[in-house]
Amino acid sequence: MMSVWVEMLKAAAPLKQSRYAMFTYGAVATSKSPLEDLSQPSRNFRGLRCYTETILAATRQADIAAIFETDLYHARVPTLALHWKKDSDYFPGEGRPDLPKHVEGRHGDIDHHDMRHYIDRLSHLHLNHVDVSKKDPFNLGTQFAYMAWGAYEKQKYWVSHKDVTMEQLIKKHLPHWRLVEHVQQDTLEAVDNLWLVQNSQSLDCLLAFEGTHTFEEFFRNLEGSNGGYCGFSDVHHGYADKLYWLMKLSMPKLRSSLSKCNKVMCTGHSLGGSLCEVFAACANSGRTSDEHYQVGRP
After folding, report:
1. Yes or no: domain 15-296 corresponds to CATH 3.40.50
2. For the Fungal lipase-type domain, which residue ranges apply (predicted)?
């Protein structure tokens, strides 16, 4: 029987109406108030936001990036707090844009930001003592985690301890997906990678944003929420500015391929997840006269 998630995707509007879903991992919060999907009556995004968290006797250790911005919120999207060898916490609908937050008993941990923790926990996901790892959207969340991680162009694979590329990860873990486009753009702080991957059966596409990978780029995280993007106010200025230039310079190279996609989703780890979040909000806003919408349109 076709999964509920696939039914939702097939019922969604065609690409020209700019309906996007997001799958993010350890993303940094993006705005003073949760970004909304203006294409949906509920104003909730489709997809999944994941962060890792380990429950100890008296504390909770959470992914340090997801907890980094103490005064900002994540988008309204189903949220999954990934626990290890325990039931994870899943918040459907608008999710929990406020979590994780610095409160007594919870603190950030850099090791929890590593992608192996996300894939291991998603692969063994239990909710209410039931294994749901093969059910969507969690199954999609596991698949897309490989591409969010592969967006770094080359990374040490924790299983083999050897460098692997996006193409190798797709071939090993995602047999029905193929790499369509790979665009590189020098944004002064880094040479950023943007990937377009397509499912050969459904023709759905995934746009993968690369996360922080240079010391200079890290300072983006320290900029405040003193700007707007695509009509949304108080968006993190560093992410909004980076996304604008990435879209302005890279999107023209992708439009021809995007026109051949059925549905489009985006993904990213860390900064890549934050860029995906702002991108999806703009793409779904319907604000066609806005400059940010214009540069990022498919």
Report:
1. yes
2. 207-282
